[in-house]
Amino acid sequence: xxxxxxxxxxxxxxxxxxxxxxxxxxxxxxxxxxxxxLYLVALTEIHGWSxxxxxxxxxxxxxxxxxxxxQVGDAxxxxxxxxxxxxxxxxxxxxxxxxxxxxxxWQLYIAFLVMIPGWAAMGGGAINTIIAQWFNRxxxxxASLALNGATCGGLLFAPAFAWAIDTLGFARACVAAVxxxxxxxxxxxxxxxxxxxxxxxxTGDEHDASLEPAGTPLxxxxxxxxxxxxxxxxxxxxxxxxxxxxxxHQAAFLVPTLGLKEAGWVVSVTALAALVGRISVGxxxxxxxxxxxxxxxxxxxxxxxxxxxxxxxxxxxxLGCILFGFxxxxxxxxxxxxxxxxxxxRDFARAVxxxxxxxxxxxxxxxxxxxxxxxxxxxxxxxxxxxLVLQATAAVLILIRSRSPVIGA
Length: 409
Prior knowledge:
Elements: H1 3-10, H2 14-47, H3 51-79, H4 81-99, H5 105-122, H6 124-132, H7 139-168, H8 170-192, H9 220-223, H10 227-258, H11 260-284, H12 290-310, H13 314-326, H14 330-342, H15 348-363, H16 366-377, H17 381-397
Helix pairs in contact: 2-3, 2-4, 2-5, 2-6, 2-7, 2-8, 3-4, 3-5, 3-6, 3-15, 4-5, 4-8, 6-7, 6-14, 6-15, 7-8, 7-11, 7-14, 10-11, 10-14, 10-15, 10-16, 10-17, 11-13, 12-13, 12-14, 12-17, 14-15, 16-17
């Protein structure tokens, strides 16, 4: 092997793409997911609007956003990752700045409408599509590392943003956050998100003997007629419905026993467990069956839910939340890896984006459902049982697959 080839392989550009997508996820989830709860608190305090009024805008953000997320994979393939991400980051920042000048509830919808393309361009569908353009054999590890940025969005960015809001005020904090995001992410994305050259391969990918089957990509309707795709989408929809519902109500569930400060620590530990879980699974996922890994991941979360239902001790609450948290990040990473294992490369972007859109639509209803169950029963026990049932159903459903052969991406 020539010295120049060794050097080139030693600095494979795909790892710069992984670093860039990590930062995209960090900021995307920080401003576009975890930040929503901070906007709710700040706007309620500033304008005196009810949480229900602001929450209606957030529901609009998720539901309308799902339809744009559905298109993001095709947009990246057609326009290129660099253009889509640069535009999306700019619109996310513009929408956040818009929240600082609204003075009527209806104006929230305009600000969220501007943010929605940013959420699509910085979310899981976009990141999975970008990673797939650079990695094949080590895609599981690459995607896990990239999407750890989402976990760090809650673990690092959101607390820093909350501190800035409390210290500087809402408007100044938003301006500071947007300036930091644009100043760091725009140059990084412009450098990292270039097209891959034909001679660039990750280690082992150049020896991949799998052939791309002839034919045109499946339409969304055709994908939804594939039994193996339906069982995957159904399983992740149920799993994420339970997961997002619990995370939304986690602090409220813990506060009566632990108090607000201790509950905050448990939430942070849950996020840390998610980081550890995603890294741990990422190290082995490229060598194991991904549907089986998904079922096992859900089983760990089910064990955590059982612990939470059976105990009210401090140790038990920590243990249950740690077990649950271990699987949190993997339910975002695993769908793209199953698609890679079971569908041709030509279908990857559309299949992943459609899955993200459907699961987002389903999961958006979860927090309200758990709130209703809590109000009807008077505590969170019924809500936790509902989450457990949803996860158990998902763990079984994901194991149902068609007998058609697995297709290499």
